[in-house]
Automatic annotation (TrEMBL), chains A, B:
Organism: Tistrella arctica
Pfam families reported in the protein's UniProt record: TetR_C_24, TetR_N
Transmembrane segments: 74-96
Coiled coil: none
Keyword annotations: DNA-binding, Membrane, Transcription, Transcription regulation, Transmembrane, Transmembrane helix
Domain HTH tetR-type, first and last residues per copy: 14-74
Residue ranges of the annotated DNA-binding region, renumbered to this chain: 37-56
PROSITE patterns reported in the protein's UniProt record: HTH_TETR_2
Protein name listed in UniProt: TetR/AcrR family transcriptional regulator
Amino acid sequence: MARQKSRGEAMDPQARKVEILNSAARCFMEKGYHATSIDDVARALGCTKGFIYHYYASKTDLFFDVHREGMDRLFAAVMPATQAVGGPLAVLIAMLTAHARAMMDHHAFETVVAQGVQIHRFGATTPDQRRTLDELIASRDRFEDLFKDQAHAARAVGQIVADDISIAVKMMLGALQWSIFWYRPEADDGPDARDRLAARMVTTIIDGVRARN
Amino acid sequence: MARQKSRGEAMDPQARKVEILNSAARCFMEKGYHATSIDDVARALGCTKGFIYHYYASKTDLFFDVHREGMDRLFAAVMPATQAVGGPLAVLIAMLTAHARAMMDHHAFETVVAQGVQIHRFGATTPDQRRTLDELIASRDRFEDLFKDQAHAARAVGQIVADDISIAVKMMLGALQWSIFWYRPEADDGPDARDRLAARMVTTIIDGVRARN
């Protein structure tokens, strides 16, 4: 009798890796890096531990790849928006809206990215792991810089006011990224609802709430 | 030869408990709930494990008390601001400023509160633990309600505009609370610098960044 292949094992190699990453993102989100084992990820995916070790030498490597994928997805969402038509402020708004939407679309991955920030700050890692983590955090800084550069451009033409661009961008990104704590994909009403939510989030951030006279 | 008393054991009971909570907040912040042991907390405090078990039956109870203390400190910071002079918007600004400052003053505790939100969402807990966690999350909701009520009051008199108060408040609080990921108490220049940072954060949130014509 032929051994029944699990879902993960039946797919082509690239699709397998995506399935592993999706499963791992969900496990790390739910239990955190420290309490998650390769066993948990295998169980959630319905495959063997060996199947995952074929792709990843360790849990840490797997965590790093989830983090990397989370950053890649943010860049992939926001980069097209940097080419939006309109002045610098219109581009900034398009970037923030794409970012807000990406936080919803890739909820588990972006939750893991936030965990990575804490591990970078406090984690006991090997020199090799440290190097990888430094790279991942550097890519976060580049991501933040995209918004800072755009905010500087918008300020240069008088479209935005902000004494301190660094603080302003931290408030904007923080407001969007904190959604990892309250956004619930399972209660979501689909892409249109996500777009409306993203638009409302960004309007509040750009215009504030004070009534204009 | 008399056994040398550790720092924790030499203090009065209330001060001891505060020392345990401070040490635990730091440990949970650094390693997360799952990877932290009572041993870690004892080692960080320079006391015995038994000393901590005298106050807390389990790591979970200790975690809950750190979470509770984190919420108490937020309420203690923000409640006086609800009595600030001026109209509803002035009060809202005072509350947000006090909140921003409290996030800096109690950085470790507020980081642990955020961990508690994730554990509430995903954690496997006993019915008793669940009840405690439900109460803690309910106190988070009451905290958010303070800001929603105030935002409604400000909107009622035309001082703020927001189609959706719930989203607007989530953006405000998220922007402030995301500071657990970037604020570094060890790089801090003291209370005045913290006040200036808090004021800048809140101005950005209330007024947004779009230039007013």
